[in-house]
Amino acid sequence: MSKISVIVPVYNMEKYLNKCLDSLVNQTFKDIEILVINDGSTDKSKKIIESYAKKYKNIKAYDKENGGLSDARNYGLRKASGDYISFIDSDDYISLDMYEKMYDKAISKDYDMVVCDVNYIYENSDKTEIVSSHIKNDTTNIKETMLSIYPVAWNKLFKKELFKTGIEFKKGIWFEDVEFIYRMLPYIKSIGVVKEAMYQYLQREGSISKSTDKRLYNYIENWNGIVEFYKEKGLFEEYHDEIEYSYVRYIYATFIKHASGFDKDEFNNAVKKAIQNVKREFPKYRRNKYFYKSLKGIYLLLFNKFLAKIMYKHYRKK
């Protein structure tokens, strides 16, 4: 049994995999198991994984049929034995002292989750950009955290006990991290923050975060599922204002921004669906106090088809 289990899903990442695995096997924190899940790769990824597994005792190699990122992560969760769980995407890499610092933070006050900042690495460029976890300080205020958290799985260390809730990654969707994080948050009681950009997030052309196709509508479907989850678990009333704000923020801001990659007709369809869903789920959202605390909140209050057209022109110029 290890202190930390690191789950690394791999699908056709031969170009990036060595750098990812090198950053893991050379961690200053040694009590980790590295679970590398080959999700049906058709390139040389499997051979690379096997070579590392032969050389390093703490690498555990698994081979499965292709089922997607969420399926590979869930597979790893069922194999993990560590006290804490972490996820690394196989085209990214991490600072060599990331787990030492995050584990020390985790045990310092028995935090359920620890987060760090992220360094965006732009492929074929010298450009880098530090992005905050959007959690300023160690906190037990989970409701406030819901309003701004950077909702990804891979810059975080989770106490394994959290997964006894049965929460896993939803399969077959885009933006699975948002869906996962917002279902996990009400079960988290404390969060520790390491204010360093230790996760190196590669910005690749062609990655999901850079792509626009009809699966973008998963944003809306995912958030409808999150609302339903909170209702089913009896959490909706307790977290109503936070979920309402987050729902509208993601649909009218994040979703609309990504939808600007569509042609004009499909963008207009996306705006129509966004407005329909917000009106159905949260018709009285303008009464929510959170919208009156920031410029983004004011934008959300004012959002309409005309403003959407202005945003479309703005994003298309970039």
Walk me through what this model shows:
The protein has 318 residues and is α/β, with parallel strands linked by helices. It folds into two domains: 205 residues, Spore Coat Polysaccharide Biosynthesis Protein SpsA, Chain A (Alpha-Beta Complex); 106 residues, no CATH class. Helix content is 41%, strand content 18%. The protein is built from eleven helices and nine strands. Strands 1, 2, 3, 4, 5, 6, 7, 8 and 9 form a nine-stranded mixed beta sheet that branches. α1 links the parallel β1 and β2. α6 runs parallel beside α7 and α8 runs antiparallel to α9.
The CATH class of the largest domain, by name, is Alpha Beta
Multimerization status = single chain
- CATH topology tier name of the largest domain: Spore Coat Polysaccharide Biosynthesis Protein SpsA, Chain A
Shape: globular
Q: Largest sheet, if any?
A: 9 strands, mixed
Radius of gyration: 20 Å
Order of helix and strand elements from N to C terminus: EHEHEHEEHEEHEHEHHHHH
Summarize, please:
The protein is of the alpha/beta class and 318 residues long.
Keywords summarizing the entry:
11 helices; Spore Coat Polysaccharide Biosynthesis Protein SpsA, Chain A; 2 domains; 18% strand
